[in-house]
Amino acid sequence: MGNSFGCSASGERLVSAARDGDLVEAKMLLDCNPCLAKYSTFGGLNSPLHFAAAKGHNEIVTLLLENGADVNSRNYCGQTALMQACRYGHWEVVQTLLMFRCNVTRADYLSGRTALHFAAVNGHIRCIRLVVADFVPSSPYEVMRTQIDSARADGVNLKNKNDQSALSKFVNKAADGGITALHMAALNGYFDCVQLLLDLLANVSAVTFHYGTSMDLIGAGSTPLHYAACGGNLKCCQILLARGASRLTLNCNGWLPLDVARMWGRHWLEPVLAPNSDSVIPTFPLSNYLSLPLMSALNIARECGFKSMTTLSDDSDICAVCLERACSVAAEGCGHELCVRCALYLCSTSNIPSEMVGPPGSIPCPLCRHGIISFVKLPGSPAKGSKLHMSLGLCTPCMLHSRESDSQSPARTREIRKNRVASVSSDLLCPVTCSPFPSVAIPLCTCNDGPCPSFEPREVENQEESPHRPQTTSVDQDKMDNPRLEKTSCSSMFWGRRSCSREHQCNSEINA
Q1: N or C: which terminus of the chain has fewer CB atoms within 10 Å of its end residue's CB?
Q2: Residue-wise pLDDT tens digits, 197-214
Q3: d(Cα 147, Cα 161) in Å, to the nearest integer?
Q4: Which of 15, 48, 79 is a domain's end point?
Q5: 72-84 pLDDT per residue, tens
Q6: What residues does the RING-type domain cover (predicted)?
Q7: Structure pTM?
């Protein structure tokens, strides 16, 4: 027997369609049995929504959600579809999941990682800006910083002041071991992600701590600057220092960031990280990926719904950008009208600052280049006509999903966390007696005056393990290869030590 009306064959067909992107097959199966959207593979490893999100099949993700799939469903590891989409950088899928009001603050069972951690580890900056969209108000950036500036002026404890902000709490949420998204972005050398996270009130002084029996290769009590020193990216170290990071912070091993850089062979960082350094730290402007109008565009898209985003009546004005849909939003300031889909796409992808007068974080208007802070809904725009097929909840539930029909009840909004981490055997974690520096090669960064290149695949990493290979050959190889899929990075050793066979089973099923 299967776990969807006894039709395991149909459920496996839907899983295959979601993995392969077969939209026609998925539509046919869901038309026959909409409850297949809640099907999960044997053992509850992954649902069709997890497969579609991990593979980036946005149309199938939309189809599953419209047919009653739970947007916050977890797999065997406690990971949601949002985490899978952020892991692989499918920002369009993240956008769709946000429109269906997914929970961005959930953490997995194994390491306490949120979707923000998954996006930061792999440097998916568009996913980061989307995940934090509901926390960044559509108002001038100076307003968001007023409370912090007043705290500095009054001499109030800045940490206590920031703890009152929902944005600061979410961005600084730590996974197991105290590792934040800023730690992982700095470790892997993603300068753009580090800059955006710092603009979003990430704590530059956050420190890690010991966790159970797992071994931290850098050491407990390490700041993002320690992790940046291990990663070897010069610009990451510079922006952290420019934002207030201290060169004199000692971790629990008694190491300065300079000591970490020396241990990992990052010799080009020594002039910057030296305690008595006289190096000039450049000033960095706000990140071009800071998008203030994203919240307003996302809320309007949620209100209008997916169906109204594609309709076009005879008396409606056509969007001047796509020439396909009716205008439904207007930009505050210049007043130019767009369709909500183009406005949402513009807020999600633009990384060009406005050429005309506009506050930091504004998005340039595609018609006049005026800085847009927020969008407003036009009076004649249609509202969402349906409740996203909520009537499917009245259908006969699957025998193994009988409790999912009332999963949206307010009484069950509190998250059950009793299975988190405590049920994982300590035998699956790295013991304390492990060598702090095992024989695992981390790609050496040789970029003294530019952003760190993308880390290379495993086969390139194996070629670079020879100690007799000159550095010029490694640099040329970094410039020639640009793959991003299946890359290896510094963080693979850290998170790999905290994972267990559960996550390997879920990932192998998706990547089969």
Answers
A1: C
A2: 999 999 999 999 875 434
A3: 8
A4: 79
A5: 999 888 899 999 9
A6: 319-369
A7: 0.74
